[in-house]
Amino acid sequence: MSKIAEYLNKHILGEVTVDPSIRAAYASDGSLLSITPDAVVFPMITNDVRKIARFSWQLSLKGHTLPIIVRGSGSDKTGGAIGKGLIVSTEAHMNRIFEYDSKQKLVRLQPGVTVSSLQNTLSIHGTSISKLQYQPGTATVGGVLSRSRHTLKSVQKLEVVLSSGDVIQTHRLSKRELEKKKKLDNFEGDIYREVDGLIKQNKQLIQERLSFDDSLDHAGYASIAEVKTKDGFDLSPLFLGSQGTLGIISEMILKAEYVNQTPAVVVAAFNKHVDAHDAIDAAEQLSPSALEYIEGPYFERAKKQGKEFNFYEDAAKEGAVAAVIVASFNDFSERARSHKVKRLSKIFAELGGSVEHAKDETVSELHSVHQVTSYSLMHTGTGHATPPLVDGVFVPIDRFEDFATAVDRLAAKYHLELPIYGRPLDEIWYTRPQLHVGTAEDKKKMFTLMNEYQKLVVEHNGVFFGDSGEGRLRTFIAEQADPEVNELFKQIKDIFDPRGILNTGAKEHGKSQDVGKNLQSHYDASRRGELPQF
Predict the structure, then answer these.
(1) Which residues does the chain have with pLDDT short of 50?
(2) Using the 8-state DSSP alphabet, how is residue 426 labeled?
(3) Which of 120, 160, 239, 483 is 20 to 30 Å from 187 at the Cα level?
(4) pTM of the predicted model as reported, rounded to 2 decimal places
(5) Structure confidence at residue 215 (pLDDT)
């Protein structure tokens, strides 16, 4: 591998290293898995990435596979940012914001730009990428796009390095533009021809099993359903959520929007789950910019570490707190914000909630209530860890109450706490079991829990991969999917990566025992950009 590093160092502007300490630092990401790479590459420009991909492609033609795993800050919670082969880290050098068009609110940037850097830059212009608001500030924008389709509406254009080393730009194409692409006599032309043909051949399968009205399924390449629409043809959805298995995003143009930088906030604690669920319905009627649901145990964990909230303590005097609802309003009209805050505060109180609000431009503790979940990730000397095993499932709001009850039963079965927190507007829900991850008993429990939790999600018309894809951690669950759909996903992978170069092992069907071989005996959230975040 040292010879490969020497060769690449001669041909790219960035750096390649096989230093054991650096390789060890890139062996883990935001998941509970660990795989040491053969080398780590720090590309400086798109042409560096192109040369790396081309080199790997040529090696594969000679019978040698050298996987390429693109990585941002390493916050992926599914093992999608680790692996054997070359880790291509964009965070070190490919972190420039090139330009901002204030008239069109378009920003052009490289994938290694962090979420906080981008949002802080945009805030100067009074704009923001709203779909990034729940992402860790330390996460890179490229990393977020590669693991999640939630940002799709913000994406105007992508520059992508293909597995062959060719570079393409993706955006919405008209029928005439699509036909022009299909006539190209190169790898890009092959991709457009084959993807369009695959969509036509599997039209009924895609419509019946991959088209969801409200959910975002990140299993496999379910986004194939969004490529060809009445508005045109766009490959961008396939790269979002693909976890670097179809191509490497090297540049992007995103659409920002005007937002109120200091939204008004209404918070209420409820002693009964049914009242909290009714509060969600009431809040949705007032069109909040954000809505969050956090069950009581998260506040209790924070309380043990000294963090308290007055509204929560007031509710706790009446008994155990079931859940807290946090509603934010970023209307530019102060009158509109004030009306909504007053109206929702009254409704929450009528439902039995202990209510507080902040409607001026002063940032108060209420603006950071959602960070209470971070205290569950901090070490307290108990030996427990809170690994992200079942994070980010989609369950429709009309089934959430029944789902939450079923999760309580599952928690009792395994003598665990499985408190839920989530985003009702997106219908995305999280829970973090506290486990002794170093013990054989709890390691076994992890896989059983993941399987049973997945079944609960499906039973309640949900999607287990609602927030991100399989990565490496959850590949054994994906194997349980529809075989026809799995075959379609395999064909998509083969079109974009016929040599099996890109992020080998991610989003591929595996077995729990294979995943278990890469499990760590500890989980340190502080190394994974999780503190603090929602």
Answers:
(1) 531-534
(2) T
(3) 483
(4) 0.94
(5) 58
